[in-house]
Amino acid sequence: MMPREAKSGSGWTATRGAFRSGDEVLLRSDVPLRAGEYPCWVLDVGSMQVRLSTPMHEGRMVLVPVGAPVEVETSAHARFRSRVVDRVTGPGRCLVVERPVPISGGAGRTSPLIVVASGKGGVGKTCIAVNLAVGLASAGRQVLLMDLDLGAGNVDVLLGVGGTADLGRVVRGERRLRDVLAEPMPGLRALLAGSGLPEVVDMTALEYEWLSAELQELGGEADVMIVDVSSGVGARVTSSLAAASQSVVVTTPEPHAITDAYALLKLYRERHGTRSFELVVNMVEELAEGERVAGKMRFAAERFLAMDLRLAGIVPWDAAMRAAVRRQTPLAVWRPSSPAGRALRLLGETLLEGGAFIPPRRRWTERLLALLPGVR
């Protein structure tokens, strides 16, 4: 056991719960040159902050910088996330952190979380995520759109609202996440990752976990959350898919896009086990082409990965989509009745209702049957 430092005379009172004055905890940091696990004592617990004894290593103080995200583990092995807000020097030296919040793995989330991913770039993943969010907001939903293509995101470009947020300041601990959300239209709030921000590109695991936890808290204020993650098969991509209530994989009919989409499913299986995925086939020349791609991918996923891959939507190639991108205006706003616009609206309905995609040529039969007595 480490020597106990004197309690500060701040007048704060200890509160019930996981943290009490005098408890020993383990502080984890992954800040460069300060990374490690350090035993600390809880000095005081307040409504907004907790004071910990200054972390030590081999007889020297570990100066974890203000703004750095940290993890705190109690003697009962309960884990909490927090952030350093102050370092007090002098006789009463201590480390002040925000009131730790339990790392719950998303148990408190109530609104649907839709994560949109792809095995490679260039398949229209971000266009689908943006237009899905805009379409749902236009229909009266409260939507939180999150660009987690960290360091290379372009949701801001597609929305035409570039430069309205600075995620780098959030990562550095200078701003809270809700302070930098853009509101491009009624019902839609967006976290814009931007591109070329070194703080965002080089985020540590704890900083990424802190950001994810703040997003989770904001998600409780939305009807649906939509996340656009990076293309590819990185660990952050598969971890985001694992946290989703609905995981969407986007591909095109091109062989290399199909191969990369399957690779994403395979790596997810190796890292996280099995789950159901939603498939969107984008930029198809005709409906039958999309159905063929979906059929082949579903067969491979079931046979070789033991995974359920459901067809959520088929989006046709549409010149209006390209024009909308050049105009920096979402297709769901500019040309909602275009072929791709209608397909994206149907995709949103399918995902939120949890039903199966019904190709347009078959939907007339379904509607007719629904009108007949006794048919449901």
UniProtKB/TrEMBL annotation:
The Type III secretion system flagellar brake protein YcgR PilZN domain sits at 22-100
One function term, GO molecular function aspect: ATP hydrolysis activity
UniProt keyword annotations, A-Z: ATP-binding, Nucleotide-binding
An example of a Gene Ontology cellular component annotation for this protein is: cytoplasmic side of plasma membrane
- Which stretches make up the CobQ/CobB/MinD/ParA nucleotide binding domain? 114-330
DNA damage as a keyword? Answer: no
List the InterPro entries hit by this protein, alphabetically. CobQ/CobB/MinD/ParA_Nub-bd_dom (IPR002586), P-loop_NTPase (IPR027417), ParA/MinD_ATPase (IPR050625), T3SS_YcgR_PilZN (IPR009926)
Biological process annotations from GO: negative regulation of cell division
Q: Check the record and name the PANTHER family matching this protein.
A: CELLULOSE BIOSYNTHESIS PROTEIN BCSQ-RELATED (PTHR43384:SF4), SEPTUM SITE-DETERMINING PROTEIN MIND HOMOLOG, CHLOROPLASTIC-RELATED (PTHR43384)
Q: What is this protein called?
A: CobQ/CobB/MinD/ParA nucleotide binding domain-containing protein
Q: Which organism is it from?
A: Limnochorda pilosa
